[in-house]
Specification:
The chain is mainly alpha-helical and 88 residues long. The protein has one domain (2-87). Helix content is 67%, strand content 0%. The chain contains 4 helices and no strands. The chain has helices at 6-13, 20-23, 33-45, 54-87. The chain is extended. This is Protein FAR1-RELATED SEQUENCE.
């Protein structure tokens, strides 16, 4: 029986820690998990057409991640450039 399997039992006992690694370093400004989920769904709908096959979903999801990382890098560089300009 899986209920008595030692590894599965041990994993289940620490289930309160499961989602923490996925949100480590992410500031959500008092957003609830439902709000985060709805926000993620909204982002995905801009990249992934409804009813698409799994291989297309993965390709589009990777594109979403790439675009988000590029935007974050741009914003970080822009912010650091503004702070340098203000210094002078």
């Amino acid at each position: 029986s899986l209920k008595k399997h030692p590894v599965l039992t041990q994993i289940y006992e620490v289930r309160h820690k499961w989602a923490k690694p996925y949100f480590r370093g992410v500031f959500c400004a008092r957003m609830t998990s439902t709000q985060r989920s709805e926000s993620a769904n909204h982002l995905l709908k801009g990249y992934v057409p409804p009813g698409c096959p799994m291989h297309l979903f993965l390709k589009q999801f990777q594109k979403l991640q790439f675009d988000r990382e590029a935007e974050e890098s741009f914003q970080e560089k822009r912010t650091s450039l503004v702070s340098v300009l203000r210094f002078f």
